[in-house]
Amino acid sequence: MELIHMVRMVLWGFFGVRKSASHEADLANINFSWLPFVAVGLAALIGACILGVVLLVVHSTGATAQGF
């Protein structure tokens, strides 16, 4: 359950909008030793999703790199 709270806190941090009271409550209950790993993992997951969508769009249009 603590992992879900960390993921939620990191995603709200990525989004950038948060009430101060909710932020204070999360900081009181989080294990800070795992927080950087969760943040880097979520950033990599979001980046991989964006890359996957881009590759899907590029390959579905049949675009070729002409002139290169």
Write the SSE topology.
Elements: H1 2-15, H2 20-28, H3 35-61
Helix pairs in contact: 1-3
Shape: elongated
C-alpha-based Rg, rounded: 18 Å
| Largest sheet report | none
Mean pLDDT: 84
**DSSP helix fraction:** over 70%
Task: Please count the beta strands (DSSP E, at least 2 residues each).
Answer: 0
How many domain units? Answer: 1
User: How large a portion of the residues is in β-strands, by DSSP E?
Assistant: under 5%
Low-confidence stretches: none
Counting DSSP H or I runs of 4 or more residues, the number of helices is: 3
Describe this structure in words.
Pfam families: DUF2970. With 68 residues, this protein is mainly α. It is elongated, with a radius of gyration of 18 Å. It has one domain. 74% of the residues lie in helices and 0% in strands. It contains 3 helices and no strands. The protein starts with a helix and ends in a 7-residue tail after the last helix. α1 packs across α3.
How is this structure best summarized?
By secondary structure, the chain is mainly α. Helix content is 74%, strand content 0%.
Brief descriptors of the model:
about 70 residues, mainly alpha, 3 helices, elongated, DUF2970 domain-containing protein, DUF2970, membrane, transmembrane, transmembrane helix
